[in-house]
Amino acid sequence: MSNPLYDTLFGGYIGSDTPFIETIDGKITTHGNFVAIASRLANAFHALGLKKGDRVAIQAEKSVTSLCVYAACIQSGVIFLPLNTGYTTAEVGYFIDDSGAKLFICDEKKVDDMKPILEKFGVTLKTLNADGTGSITDLAKQQKNSFSPVDTNGDDLAAFLYTSGTTGKSKGAMLTQNNLLSNSKTLTKYWKFNDQDVLLHALPIFHTHGLFVAVNVSLMSGCKIILMPRFDVSQILDNMPKATVLMGVPTFYTRLLSETAFDAELTKNMRLFISGSAPLLAETHIEFENCTGHRILERYGMTETNMSTSNPYDGERRAGTVGFALPGVEIKITDPESGLELATGEIGNLEVRGPNVFKGYWNMPEKTKEELREDGFFITGDLGLVDEDGYLQIIGREKDLIISGGFNVYPKEIELVLDDQPGVVESAVIGVPHPDFGETPLGILVIEDTNVEFKISVIENKIFEKLARYKHPRKLIIMNQLPRNTMGKVQKNVLREKYKEIFLS
Ligand code: MCA
Ligand code: AMP
């Protein structure tokens, strides 16, 4: 009997007194306690009738218990499906329906809104609040604190992570145990994680970055985690002297740089600052080094691929690049038309192959075929080039995607909501530079030529109802018509140029 992911990440910690997680109230959870809580939860899943391959969807605040739900899923061979806490009821409804989840775990505050949807799909509901209380905790407390891990192999699915797409319809990326295992082994070694490390954990735990990268690497290396509910600059500054590593999105670093207390003295115990999920401006990289003496290590990844490239730990961390393919991972730059590999320095589609690359999109064989080639290369939708020294630069995106503070926003999803509103003839959503979030959506509307007073506020309310807050256009602008090319296609590049400074002045 074996369960490779559980055995590697958790199996060795049974009964261990070594501190694993410290929360900001100073409470410490040992590795042994963590595994015991996870085992109680795994028994609770069993009592609820969950079997290997079933899906557990969770939309809960970041806490030790919500991380234990992840461990319990691995242990019981159940597929873990974490959801952004900002998703609206309508958005969550789609994920529940599409994934066929058997159990949904959420904060008590969301129960009334969620009940009709869960009843419709026959999904069991349990609660988990930010303080760790809830009906799933109550059920877990009645269970034994040991659980014999369900037999799995590396190719079995460990998680579904939904990622939105150019059509506006989210896709469930199926990640196997081996995808997660291979990547965390590689990163632990590459970034030299060890049991003396202390990670400042301020990322959300519903994405690859804060979950698989941060948590799996910590488990693999024995690194301790200081778990923060969210990114709060003063909490980061207070805890930095106790820490050695920070993983963040570029917004973390630009916010830290605007703090006078953030300097070389404060960061003297730190050995590594890692950035990813969105482009880090070369000027931020340089400013950071001038301020602290540390060079940020930028890496590149995707939900579908985990981490694919990284700047070197020991060699030159080059600003404006995402480094080299990780050991065991292959990258190539191809011609978007022919698919043929391009020469050094030429810009084209970035493709990735390796044990880190996902199995496909849940229930979407056609979509999977479009993006995952038969030879195993995944077409990322990012445009890049490999320079003379082998460093990869992400130059732009083939896909119509906006990355706001590290969260992906697909314009189509917003345009579908805008186009549906009375009085709107058509809309275009573009990404424009934003001083804090890097990029942010801007909505442009063409409205009907009537005498009826048109209220932007009505549309804004509708957006609140339909879409998570981070997807909301920061502004809606009315134009007489959208610029189009001779083929009739909206020229988003013209709009992006026109409004590129709208949030910068
Ligand atoms: C929060 N808001 C946002 C964002 N986050 N709006 C746009 N973009 C965002 N990213 C909303 C809030 O709801 C709030 O709404 C208002 O904006 C201001 O919130 P603020 O307090 O400034 O936000 P925050 O809580 O400080 O969050 C900003 C953040 C956070 C720290 C940048 O978004 C974050 O932790 N981002 C990390 C995302 C991440 O982990 N990405 C990894 C996925 P209101 O105005 O109503 O108050 S990508 C991935 O996993 C791949 C594999 C990879 O390569 O890593
Ligand atoms: P997600 O689908 O949420 O996993 O986001 C993945 C996308 O984030 C990639 O396709 C890239 O567009 C972007 N991304 C991740 N890391 C970087 C980086 N270091 N530089 C530029 N873009 C990045």
Give an account of the 3D structure.
With 505 residues, the chain is of the alpha/beta class. Among the domains are: 4-152, 3-Layer(aba) Sandwich (Rossmann fold), CATH 3.40.50; 402-498, 2-Layer Sandwich (GMP Synthetase, Chain A, domain 3). Helix content is 30%, strand content 25%. The protein has helices at residues 4-9, 31-47, 64-76, 89-99, 111-121, 135-141, 177-190, 209-221, 233-239, 250-257, 282-292, 365-371, 411-419, 456-466, 492-498; strands spanning 19-23, 28-30, 55-59, 79-82, 103-106, 124-127, 157-163, 171-176, 198-201, 224-227, 245-248, 272-275, 297-302, 306-310, 324-325, 330-334, 348-353, 360-361, 378-386, 392-397, 402-404, 407-409, 424-434, 438-447, 475-478. The strands form 6 sheets. It has a 9-stranded mixed β-sheet. Strands 4-3-5-6 form a 4-stranded parallel β-sheet, with helices on both faces. A 4-stranded antiparallel β-sheet has the order 16-17-19-20, with no helix packed on it. α5 links the parallel β5 and β6 (124-127). α2 (31-47) packs across α6 (135-141) and α4 (89-99) packs parallel to α5. The longest helix is centred in the N-terminal third of the chain and has 17 residues, at 31-47. The protein is globular and about 70 Å long. The model has no long low-confidence stretch (mean pLDDT 96). The protein binds methylmalonyl-coenzyme A (MCA) and adenosine monophosphate.
